Amino acid sequence: MLSSQIEQALNTLVTRLNEIQLDGLAAFETVALAMPAVMDVTYMPAAYVLLDNDQVKMENQYLEMHTLTVIISVFQIEDGTTGLTLSGAVYDALVSERTLGEKCGSLVVKKVNYVRTTLDTEIVIRAEITLEFAIRYAPGKPAEAMLMQEINVKEEVT
Q1: Which tens digits make up the pLDDT trace of 121-150?
Q2: Which of 65, 87, 109, 138 could pair with 127 in a Cys bridge, judged by C-beta atoms 3.0 to 4.6 Å apart?
């Protein structure tokens, strides 16, 4: 199922974010697939993985290419830095292995936005990292040889 493929890729992103370390310690207090209804500085630094968009293109009558846009929102309390260390560590973790363990086509970071805001008397830096990756999906039942030829060809998102 397509939803299963997407969930596997998103869960791999969460795992990769949980593995990030800075100075030998876990970089994040919280990593999740959705943003909480109420933000709380006690759970920062935090990273939230949000599925934003799915563009579908038919490659042939049996095979679809889904280009998924995902936004990773990284929150940290301002500590006199620009916030580049944590967002840079996230960027490096994302591009270190762009297929998410062969769960997708090449992951591409499209942009990084930075915003400062006040939350509970603290200044919070929010980095929004927008990325795209592709997943092939065959909803029909084509001839096995044709399907395998198509799936074994990797295509990069541009």
Answers
A1: 888 888 999 999 999 888 765 545 444 444
A2: 87
The two tokens of residue 27 are 């970089």
b vs e for 84-122, b when ≥16 Cβ sit within 10 Å of the residue's Cβ?
eebbebbbebbeeebebeebbbbbbeeebeeeeeeeeee
Q: How many domains does the chain have?
A: 1
**Residue 5 three-state SS:** helix
Separation CA 101–CA 146 (nearest Å): 24
Residue 7 DSSP symbol: H
**Domain containing 25: what range?**
2-151
Are 72 and 50 spatial neighbours (Cβ–Cβ below 8 Å)?
Answer: yes
CATH no. for residue 104? 3.30.70.1700
Q: Which helix (H) or strand (E) holds 93?
A: helix 84-95
What digits encode the pLDDT tens for the residues 38-72? 777 888 899 999 999 999 998 888 888 999 999 99
Tokens of 55: 């563009």
Answer yes or no: is 36 within a domain.
yes
